[in-house]
Amino acid sequence: MANINQLPYYLINNTYKTNQIAKFLLKKVKKLLKEKCPYHYLVFQRKDKMLKIIQDKSKKYPYFLRFDIEKYYPSINHEILLDILRKILKSRQGQKLLKTEILPFLNKIGIQNKGLPLGNYLSYVLAGIYLLPLDIKLIKLNKPFLRVQDDYLVFCKNKKEPERILKEIIEPELNKLELKININKLNSGKFHQNPVEFMGFKYYAGVFTISKQKIEEFKKKIVFLTHLNSSKQHKIIKLSNNKNKNDNSHLFSAIAGNKWKKGNSGKEKIKIKATIKKLNNKILGFGHYYKLASCKQDFEKLDAFIRQRLRRYISRNKDSKNRLGNLILTNEAIKSMGLKSLTDIYTKYATKNGHILRKTNKKKRKIGNEKKSDFLRKSDFLTDNYYEKAMLQQLQELTKNVRQMKNKVDKILPR
Q1: Which of 46, 52, 142, 260 allows an S-S link to 269, with CB 3.0 to 4.6 Å?
Q2: 314-350 as b/e: b if 16+ CB within 10 A
């Protein structure tokens, strides 16, 4: 299997001109799709609306067909793409743009007139346009579906319909486009009996959770950011350097302020602040994307994993004495360094908006003079329970740290 990252068309960057062409094409496509398929991903990209559509459609259409395209971007045929564009760009301006801009763009890239560059806005729009013949076919036959790039979720009324749609509609259209289905991602079943993954979410029994694959991918990114090679050990200021053993403020300020100590080499910086900033970028992106799901437990576990990796990153070095600094890296200490929390993102969203994607009891009960839904009462209980659990864990961690410190002091000081 070819490595996409090594293909020659991978590093084509965005330019002002390509972005303007992409916006022009997108405007034309939106006019075409707005009436026929208003929930198409090229028309709007509200993931909360898409997830709501899945919930609503799964009631009327209990069965599904899920698939995506094998090596989609590398497989896009330039000649077929140009034929599709000619049907969309019928005006003089469109035809001129096709000859003077899009055709030269395609000629610069690809292997044997195939392939589009990744990470390019114009490629994103062209890739969206390439599968429009299949989309229009499904729309004409009144087969409801959702699509994000090359990922499809087709809603079906009965058990036999997924196989029939696949053989009679999808496969013939894909053959015309010289595309193949990714067999590993081909899936069909019943919504309330079989889990289905779409847009990184797993939908099962009316509830959205985070796909395990996406959780593992996120953890790999965290490991990459907090990985230390033997040649890149970051040293922290020794706790023993401080005259007052009870005052740990110097360590916090050194870590949070990205200060560095002149050690044996005199040039090794502590890049904790920069690492935390990179971690926060990943946390904010992942958290705000998946906060719509029922993911509180997953977020709590991931927060614990991130803190564990950060502790290891800070404390790991060749000098074993420096590991003493790890003893004071409590959850509060790490939070004071500026590390964001996935759980905080989820809690803030759930408190402000409620949870639109969780099954809730619509019947409200009176509590005093106020009405409170079952979900809100449960949410309050879970929030209180979470803080109690967090405080208990922190207290246990502090107790353990004090014991370890006492043991080290006993070994150093003579009795």
Answers
A1: 260
A2: bbbbeeeebebbbbebbbebbeebebbbbbebbbeeb
| Locus of tokens 């005259």 | 243
The answer to pTM > 0.90 is no
pLDDT tens, position by position, 162-221:
999 999 999 999 999 999 999 999 999 999 899 999 999 999 988 999 999 999 999 999
**CA separation for the pair 401, 178 (Å, rounded):** 62
Q: List the structure tokens of 47.
A: 């993931």
How far is 76 from 362, CA to CA, in rounded Å?
A: 48
Q: Residues 20-58: pLDDT tens digits?
A: 999 999 998 988 888 788 888 888 778 888 999 999 999
Contacts 24+ apart (CB under 8 A), 199-204: 199/47, 199/50, 199/51, 199/148, 199/151, 200/289, 200/290, 201/51, 201/290, 201/292, 201/293, 203/51, 203/54, 203/58
Q: For 159, phi and psi rounded to 5 degrees?
A: -65, -35
Burial class of 231 by CB neighbour count within 10 A (0 to 12, 13 to 18, 19+): exposed
The residue type found at 364 is K
| Residue bearing tokens 């991931």 | 302
The single residue listed with the structure tokens 């140009």 is 82
Single out the residue of 281, 272, 378 nearest to residue 334, CA to CA: 272
Q: Which two structure tokens, joined as six digits, stand for 68?
A: 């995506």
Q: Which residue pairs from 328-331 have beta carbons closer than 8 angstroms and sit at least 24 positions apart in sequence?
A: 328/239, 328/248, 328/251, 328/401, 330/394, 330/397, 330/398, 330/401, 331/307, 331/390, 331/393, 331/394, 331/397
- Which residue ranges form the domains of the chain, and what is each CATH number? 4-205 (3.30.70.270), 209-412 (no CATH)
List the one residue out of 149, 119, 124 whose CA is nearest residue 134: 149
- Phi, psi at residue 190, to the nearest 5°? -110, 135
